[in-house]
Amino acid sequence: MKNRQSLASLLIVSAVIIAPLALSPATGADQSFRQRAGDSKATVRSLTADVEAEIRFGRDVAARIVGRHGLYASEPVTRYVNLIGQAVAMHASRPELRYRFAVLDTNTVNAYAAPGGYIFVTRGALSSMRDEAELAGVLAHEIAHVTQKHIVKELNIRGQDDATEAGIAHFLGGTSDPTRVAFSQAVDKAMDLLFESGLKKADELEADRVGALILANTGYGPKALPRYLERISDGRETTRLLHATHPPFSERLAKLNELIRSEGLDAMSAGSAQKRFAANMRTMK
Amino acid sequence: MSRTNTVCLGILLAIGGGRADADDYHYNNMLIGHRASGLGGAYTAISDDPSGLYYNPAGIVYAGATNFSASVNAFHRTQYDYRDVVGGSDWSRESSTLLPNFFGVTQPLGNGVVGFSYAVPDSILENQDQLLRNVSGSPIDTYIININNEDNTYKLGPSYAISLSDSLSIGATLYAHIRSTETIFSQVITLTNEQYEWTTSYLQSEESGIEPIIGLMWSPFERLAIGMSVRQTFVLSSHTDLQNVCATDITTSACERKDQHPSTQLSQFDTERVYPLQIALGMAYFPNNRLLLSADFSYYAQAGGAVNSYIDSPFRTKETTWNASAGVEYYVSDHWALRAGVFTNRANTPALESGRTGQADHVDLLGLAASVSRFTRSSSLSFGLAYTSGEGEAQAVQGIDDIQNLEVNTLTLFLSTSYTY
Predict the structure, then answer these.
(1) ipTM of the complex
(2) I need a labelling partner for A165 at 20 to 30 A (CA). Which of A89, B11, B77, B356 fits?
(3) Average pLDDT for residues A43-64, to the nearest whole number?
(4) Span between the terminal Cα atoms of chain B, in Å
(5) Per-window interface: B 103-122 vs A, CB < 8 A
C-alpha cells in the first residue's frame, strides 16, 4: 500500500512539473561544448565513403521526390534547365559531385535539393520566372544546399566505418547492420525536411548567401534571386508550401539585399538572358 | 544453554534469517554504462549517450549522433570477509558473475529523442563451500557451509527527452523493475561427541514493479552543465517461497524436533520491498574538447520498514544515506581517451551497537574507477575497472551479540562498445 501511495504521489508531482514544460515550444539546443575530441573523426578513406553514402542517399531521396510529383515530360525544357544548372554548378564547390537537374510536374512553386547533387525545380516555379537569371538564381540556391551539406549534416549521413576496431565493436556488441535501418529512417526524415518541417532557418539563409555569390560568379546578376523571391512572396496558394518550409521572405530579402550591397554586387552589370529564357519556355504549358 | 550450542544455534538462525541475499545494505553496487563507469558514475550532468537513459534521460537530447547504441559486458566480483566468526575462524562469502549489464539505444522521434535501455544495477552469483575442522575453543568437529545464491535486478524500458530551450532539457525513463532471487543453503555441523545438526533452506523470490526516472539538464553557462534526476522503484508484485528443513539430536537446536527426524517449515509470503526515493544532482565542466570534469551527489531517503516474520534483511528499515562521485575524462589523442573516477557506496544501515543482536552489516565503501577507450569514426571500444573496498562491522551470527569486523572488496571489469550511425 505504501508503495502505491508513493507512486501516485510521484506521478502527480511529475505531471504537474512536466506538463507545462512539455507544452513549451521545442527549440534547437546549442550544446556544442559537449563535442569531444574523439567524436566522428574522418579520414581520407572515410571521406570517400561519405561522398558515396551521400550520393546513394540523395538518389533515394530524389526517387521519392519524383515519385511524389512526377517529372515534367518536356525534353527541351529539361535540357535547358540542365544546361543552366550545369553552368551554375561549374562555379560551385564540390567538384566530386555530378549535378543533375529535373523539372517536377506540379503547379506549386518550389525547388528542392537532395544530397549528392540531385536538384529539382517545379513547373510552377518556372512559370513564375521572367528570365534565365532568375532560373539560375533558384538553381544556385539549391546547389548551395548541396555544397553546404545541409541535409547531410542535419541527418548525419556518412559512410560505413570499416576500421578493424569498428568491426570488433559490432561483433562484441552483437548488432547487425544498424546502418541500413538508420539509412531508411533518414530518407523519411529528409522527405519531412523538404516537404513538411523545412531546413533550419540558418541553413536557408546560408543557401541564399552562397547561392547569390555562385550566381554572380557564373555571370548572372545577383539581384535576380531577390527579384524572383519578391515576386512570389505575395502569398498565392501555389507558394504555400514554400512559405511553410522557409524563413519569412521579408527577412530573406533584407539579408540578400544587404549582402549584394556589402559585396558591391549591386553595381555589377550582368545579363538576364530574358529572350533565351522565353524561347526555351515557349513549349511549356 | 552452553556457549557451544549457542554458536550452532546462532549460525542456523543467521542463514535462516535471510542473510543469503544480494547486498541490500548499499545502493551503488554496480556502475552502469561504458563512459559513466570510467567516471565513477559521476554522469548525471553528462548523460549525452545511451547510458544517460539510466542516469539522467534529459541528457540524451545532446547525444553527439542521430542514432546511438551502446552495450557493456561486465565481470563483477564481491568478497565479504567476516573476521573471527566461529572459534577464531573467518567466514568468507564470494560472488562472481559475468553478465551484459547495460544496453541502450537512442534515436530522434518528433521534436525529441526516444531511447530504450536495459540495465542490471545489482547481480550476485554465489557458489560457495566452506569447511571448518576442529574449531578452536568449541566442541565443533566439522562445520560445512554450502551456499548457492543468485540474486539479479533488471531494469528495462523506454525513455523520451525533449529540448525546451538552448540550455534546458527534460526527459523521463520508465523502467520495468524485475528482481529474481534463488538461494539454496546447506549447513552441517558435527560435534566431537558425534551429535549433529543438518539444515537446508531454499528461498525463491520474484519481485516486479516499475521505476520512473525524471531528469532535467540545464546549462546556465557555456561549458557548464547541471543535471538532476529523481527516481524510485515501486514494487507492485512480490512473492516468496521459503522452505527450511533441519534434523538434529542437539537438544538446544532451533530445530523443532531433536530426535533425528527432519523438521520442515514451508512458508509463502507477498511482503513487498520498499525502495528509497533517490535524488541525484550532478555538475559537469567541459573546459575544452579534450578535458571533462564531473561530480555527482545522490541522496537516498529512508526506505524499507515492512514487517516479515520469516526473513528480515530485505524488508528492514534502511537509513537515509548519500553517495558522491567525481570523475575526469581526458583525450590523449583523437582516438584514445582515459577516464578515472572516485565514488562512495555508503551503507544504508546504522552503526552497530554493543549489547544488541540481529544487527545488519555496516560498511562504508570507497571506490576507484578507471577506463581507456579507443575511438574510430563511428564506434568506440572501452575497457575499464571499478574497485571498492571498506571495513566495518557485522553480526554474522544472529542471536548472539558478538560483533565481527567485516572487510568488503568488490571488483568490476567491463568491456563496452558503442556505435553511432
Answers:
(1) 0.79
(2) B77
(3) 83
(4) 71
(5) 107-108, 111-112
